[in-house]
């Protein structure tokens, strides 16, 4: 599914709406170039999930945990040096835990990801605030989210 966002406000609205729909066990994979808006989208997902803390990119720590209506696990694997680092973090406890996972640069660890994920590929548009988001997945949960977003 392709969604065109014409402004930062559109990006925030998408993130808040999507965040409000997420359930325990959902894994969102955010991919895109530097500056595409992965962290901006994550911040608005957090708003939709009821996170009151300021969300920052965990570029150097690999993962930040937040509390909202459920735990939110925010990964940034851009600087990941090897898959072994994920093992050291106990990633599967997060992936199969009590909360929602949001993973920036998820394409770097796609072999480690569970099957039922929702992928958001973000591309910069021609204007500075324009973005194109391609949402893909194959699970029933993915289809349910598209229906609830009203973009099937």
From TrEMBL:
<keyword id="KW-0819">tRNA processing</keyword>
<dbReference type="GO" id="GO:0005524">
    <property type="term" value="F:ATP binding"/>
</dbReference>
<comment type="similarity">
    <text>Belongs to the TsaE family.</text>
</comment>
<keyword id="KW-0067">ATP-binding</keyword>
<dbReference type="Pfam" id="PF02367">
    <property type="entry name" value="TsaE"/>
</dbReference>
<dbReference type="GO" id="GO:0002949">
    <property type="term" value="P:tRNA threonylcarbamoyladenosine modification"/>
</dbReference>
<dbReference type="InterPro" id="IPR003442">
    <property type="entry name" value="T6A_TsaE"/>
</dbReference>
<keyword id="KW-0460">Magnesium</keyword>
<dbReference type="GO" id="GO:0046872">
    <property type="term" value="F:metal ion binding"/>
</dbReference>
<dbReference type="InterPro" id="IPR027417">
    <property type="entry name" value="P-loop_NTPase"/>
</dbReference>
<keyword id="KW-0479">Metal-binding</keyword>
<dbReference type="GO" id="GO:0005737">
    <property type="term" value="C:cytoplasm"/>
</dbReference>
<keyword id="KW-0963">Cytoplasm</keyword>
<protein>
    <recommendedName>
        <fullName>tRNA threonylcarbamoyladenosine biosynthesis protein TsaE</fullName>
    </recommendedName>
</protein>
<keyword id="KW-0547">Nucleotide-binding</keyword>
């Amino acid at each position: 599914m392709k969604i065109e966002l014409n402004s930062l406000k559109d990006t925030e609205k998408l993130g808040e709406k999507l965040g409000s729909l997420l359930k325990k066990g959902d894994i969102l994979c955010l991919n895109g170039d530097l500056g595409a808006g992965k962290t901006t989208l994550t911040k608005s997902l957090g708003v939709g999930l009821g996170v009151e803390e300021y969300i920052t990119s965990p570029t150097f720590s690999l993962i930040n945990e937040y509390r909202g209506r459920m735990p939110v696990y925010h990964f940034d694997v851009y600087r990941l040096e090897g898959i072994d680092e994920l093992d050291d973090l106990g990633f599967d406890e997060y992936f199969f835990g009590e909360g929602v996972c949001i993973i920036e640069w998820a394409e770097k660890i796609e072999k480690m990801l569970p099957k039922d994920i929702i992928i958001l590929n973000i591309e910069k548009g021609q204007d500075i605030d324009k973005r194109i988001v391609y949402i893909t997945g194959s699970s029933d949960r993915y289809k349910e989210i598209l229906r609830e977003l009203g973009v099937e």
